[in-house]
Design goal:
The complex is a heterodimer of chains A (about 250) and B (about 230). Chain A has eight helices and no strands. Chain A has about 250 residues and is mostly helical. In chain B, about 45% of the residues are buried. Classes of the chains: A mainly alpha (about 250), B mainly alpha (about 230). Chains A and B meet through helix 4 and helix 6 of A and helix 7, helix 8 and helix 9 of B.
């Protein structure tokens, strides 16, 4: 049975989001310099952290795939990277809005975190095209895993190197991202972090469930002989779980 | 069957690849010509007659990286299309020997391109003397070429048997090469300082060496999985 526990998980996520949003708007104090705009921080920073953690998790799942040859790990890795890509786009957009408000520009080059994040996104943007360009499902899974591991290792290394680059040695304009936040802000930030993590996890589970159910349906249709030639699987960037053994 | 010594396999693969290049000349002349043409493009695009420091180092390295992509796209094509992979997989050789051979090939290609591109760059665009920068430059070139070669050998293998190899090779390798570019450009810039070279921060050689080593290990660990069928 797929999607076990999905309903309570979704409810918890929704509740946590409601709580976080309420805290962000009604409980957390306005920032002394940035005022109301600073509240985008509670959305932007958790999304960014989740994106990067998700990419690295995708790499770890890819290692599990190459070690066990269990295609379900490839599916997990694919969905993790897929969700993280969506989170990443949201991060870039919210970050841009914040930069415009705080620094007056939609994009600034002298913030290492911003630039590293863009590089990571540019790399991961090739993940789906790479999968799509390989027809054989087995090889697609294998090559995608090699990519996911390489790129997963690239994420932390890239952040370190970009931070070293000249022009980036100045202290950050907003140096208080992780430390010395006033008490309430810190509580709300952790709350936002938890809700974003729950959202990521829920979406990941949802997507996995949907993919497994679709594969199972196809398999059962095939068994019933409903159509002798079950709709040919379109070439796709998503891993295919056509095998009965893989679905179980 | 006795497993052949890895060094012998690498040498055989290397000989085969270099002989192929010497017979067909499908990569090296294109890379050299591309580099020189790109210098001309930069001259017109930026409208500068001479350059030094950051600009010179950036123009040189961006050109070299782009030229490298031409080879990254090609080094595995003969193996993929004319049975090179099949023959190699049938032999009892260690698979990672191919990665080592291709890395060396890319390193050699880059060095040859630089033999042409550096003098051309000095004549066409560089303001300070190349001679003064050369001793320091040799270190940058060695570590920079190694980084390009390692990443190119891995990504080339990843991209060659996909349907859009000419597209995926550069798209995947360029973001991976940005840290290399950061290191080599920052390292080269003080060497091209006009009128005299100034000291290089010691962290760039270290960081670049570390990056090369890490991606060398990653490529070594993962290459086998790219050559299974």
């Amino acid at each position: 049975m797929y999607g076990k526990g999905l309903r309570p998980l979704s409810l918890i996520t929704a509740a946590s989001f409601a709580l976080t949003l309420a805290a962000v708007f009604f409980w957390a104090p306005n920032d002394a310099y940035l005022g109301f705009l600073q509240k985008i921080f509670y959305v932007h920073v958790p999304l960014a952290i989740l994106t990067l953690v998700g990419f690295v998790a995708g790499g770890l799942m890819a290692i599990a795939h190459l070690r066990t040859r269990d295609r379900r790990w490839d599916m997990r890795s694919y969905v993790a990277i897929h969700i993280s890509l969506i989170f990443g786009v949201a991060t870039l957009i919210t970050g841009s809005i914040w930069a415009r408000g705080a620094w007056g520009h939609w994009w600034v080059w002298n913030d290492p975190t911003l630039v590293s994040f863009l590089l990571v996104m540019l790399l991961y943007a090739t993940y789906q095209p790479l999968r799509f360009a390989i027809e054989d499902p087995e090889r697609q899974a294998r090559y995608a895993s090699v990519f996911a591991i390489t790129a997963g290792a690239f994420v932390p290394i890239n952040f370190i190197i970009v931070r070293l680059a000249p022009g980036y040695v100045h202290p950050r304009t907003l140096g208080n991202i992780n430390g010395n936040l006033p008490g309430r802000m810190q509580v709300v930030f952790y709350l936002a972090m938890v809700s974003a993590a729950l959202l990521w996890f829920t979406l990941w589970r949802f997507e996995l469930t949907a993919k497994h159910v679709a594969a199972q349906m196809r398999h059962l249709r095939g068994l019933l002989g409903e159509d002798a030639d079950p709709a040919p699987v379109r070439r796709s960037a998503a891993p295919s779980l056509t095998h009965a053994g893989n679905v179980g | 069957m006795k497993r052949p010594r890895s060094v012998a396999v690498v040498r055989a693969l290397l000989e085969a690849q270099l002989r192929l290049e010497l017979r067909t000349f499908e990569s090296l002349p294109a890379m050299c010509l591309f580099a020189v043409t790109t210098f001309v493009l930069f001259h017109f695009g930026l409208n500068v007659y001479q350059m030094s420091s950051d600009l010179a180092s950036g123009v040189l390295w961006v050109t070299l990286l782009l030229a490298a992509l031409l080879a990254v796209n090609r080094i595995y094509v003969a193996d993929a299309e004319q049975g090179g992979f099949d023959g190699f997989l049938l032999s009892p050789a260690e698979r990672s020997t191919m990665l080592v051979a291709k890395t060396i090939v890319l390193f050699v290609y880059m060095s040859v391109v630089e033999l042409i591109a550096l003098p051309a760059f000095a004549i066409l665009l560089l303001e300070p003397s190349l001679w003064n920068a050369l001793p320091g430059l040799l270190g940058v070139l060695a570590l920079g070429n190694l980084g390009v070669a390692v990443i190119g050998a891995l990504v080339g293998a990843l991209a060659v048997r996909t349907q859009a190899r000419d597209l995926l090779g550069p798209l995947v390798s360029l973001p991976l090469l940005v840290p290399v570019l950061i290191c080599v450009a920052s390292w080269t810039s003080p060497l091209f300082h006009y009128p005299d070279a100034i000291g290089v921060a010691v962290r760039w050689p270290l960081v670049l060496a570390l990056y090369d080593a890490i991606f060398g290990l990653i490529a070594f660990a993962l290459f086998d999985f790219l050559l299974e069928d």
